[in-house]
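Input/output pair, single chain:
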Amino acid sequence: MTVRWGILGCGDVVRKRVAKAIQDDPNSELLSVCRRDPDKLKQFAQDFEINHAYALDEDLIADPNIDAVYISTPVDLHLPQTIACAEAGKHVLVEKPMAMSVAECDQMIDACRENNVKLGVAYYRRFYPVVDRIKELIESGEIGKVLSVSAVTATAFAMSPGDDGYWRVLPDQGGGGALMDIGSHRINLFLDLFGAVDKVRAVCGTVAADYDADDCAGVLMQFTSGIQGHVHCYFGVTFDPDEFSVVGTKGRLMTRTLNGGSLYIETVDGVAEEPHPPNPNFNSPLIADFVAAIAEDREPLVSGDEGRKTNAILELAYRDA
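Output:
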């Protein structure tokens, strides 16, 4: 079967990866796109040779030729657009973070279940080969009993009014700042690796920026198992450390850049390096899995329930901060 896609929102991420991932997928076809800015919409449609371009989301959602919709709009639009897609019988793959709150996540999940459509969330790092290898080494006992997991991430977003994506630093549209936008990716990995969390403490603030959202955030988690998790994230930093580390009683697993895929295994025997690069287009495995979930009538690897768990930690962190 071929899944016919529409995309709501044609910003930076869609231009860089999402549209191409759909067009390259052998079981997908990108039919339609939507963006409110008419000039940018026209340019995007021309660049990607897409015949159907809509200025209004309701027009794209109503298109009877579309089977699935990729939602890449500001976070405050995820709920109404997901519900509208579900009620129109469209499967939904929504950008992270899934929604503004856990309550919104619940409404999205309910709408998709009631209308028998799939709901996935775009935490594409779950498909990284290096993450699979980290899981394998943890389960094998290579580094002994795990004590903690940590991540440091940053982006150079300077964000001035009028910039594409400025909504990311408007809490009423993006839900938060650095923690909500880039920290959510790492928290999703933490939960996949180590399960439920009992305690969350956080500090989030605006240190160097001119906007109100957090440009600097730190979160400490305690998992039900007792393992500790630490994530630090920043907006407006010219380099991205992109570090991911798991410490155990017999060693440590570390990526110097998670996106690069080089894994360092440190034990008493020394340091071994293994290359596990991701797909050149980070979003391609995400699209392939979502299409397979539709064909096989199963849940996507990163389902709405998975997205909800991440939102629950974000909500607790912001509340504590």
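DSSP finds ten helices and 14 strands in the chain. The two ends are 47 Å apart (CA to CA).
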